[in-house]
Amino acid sequence: MTAGSLSPAARLAPTKRELIPAILRACNLRPGQTHMDLGSGDGRVVVAAAQLGATSIGIEIDAELASKSSAHIKKLGAHGAAIVHGDMFDADVSRADAVTFWFGVEVSNRLMQKLRREMKPGSRAVEAIEPPRVHRWHSRS
Questions:
Q1: What is the 3-state secondary structure (H, E, C) of the chain?
Q2: Is 12 a member of any domain?
Q3: Per-residue pLDDT, 95
């Protein structure tokens, strides 16, 4: 774990199912694009993005939750969806067309610094709040 990482004991607050369509509309995902959900929890956003034709990868720091989510995705047969056990601050987001996340202000601010540095031009980062907040980059900072 890095100095900037979250504890696996961080409180799980699943994304409201009724908010997922708005989040994914804000991502403006197209078939064949790559989506990442940082702090993917039970994988519900990952599955929904894959159903749109994106390759969707969830990053989850809690090993047990990542394992359960992966098993659930396999059971669903959700092609293009995967959960990886890891620290979002160590994740390679450079190939993502869209990244989704929801954390408190302090963690979100630190995460936004990483995303600004590492995401490719034209990519989107969407905070899973009501309404979803979209951040776009035209160049790497």
A1: CCCCCCCCCCCCCCCCHHHHHHHHHHHCCCCCCEEEEECCCCCHHHHHHHHCCCEEEEEECCHHHHHHHHHHHHHHCCCCEEEEECCCCCCCCCCCCEEEECCCHHHHHHHHHHHHHHCCCCCEEEECCCCCEEEECCCCC
A2: no
A3: 95
The residue count for the chain = 141
pTM of the model: 0.86
Domain count of the fold of the chain: 1
Taking the CB of residue 86, how many other CB atoms lie within 10 A of it? 19
Least confident of 3-7, 23-27, 72-76, 121-125: 3-7
CATH at 92: 3.40.50.150
In a domain, 111, yes or no: yes
